[in-house]
Amino acid sequence: METALVQRGIGVTFRGRSWSKRSREWVYFNAYLDIARIRKVFPLPACVHDCARLDDRERGLYCEVCRDALIGLPRRLAGKPSFPDGGDGDSPVKPLGSGHEKKR
Question: Mean of the pLDDT values across residues 19-43?
């Protein structure tokens, strides 16, 4: 999926270890990631969970096995790309605690 984002010309705003010592490589994209459509287009293993920050600044997908993540904008914003193209589906992630929360 990361390759598809890059091939689409979506800019990477950060790559590396995020705020948590438990994370590995997190890649942040300057785009809205439509999680519901991504799950329909890309076969993701069960260990990949939706995640969102409590402060509503980012959301994406997190792998609990390798601790990598692909993170995008928290909502569609004018002038920013949406991935994958089209569709109006969305997968809301309700924050439950502090930091990043995951939805199974």
Answer: 89
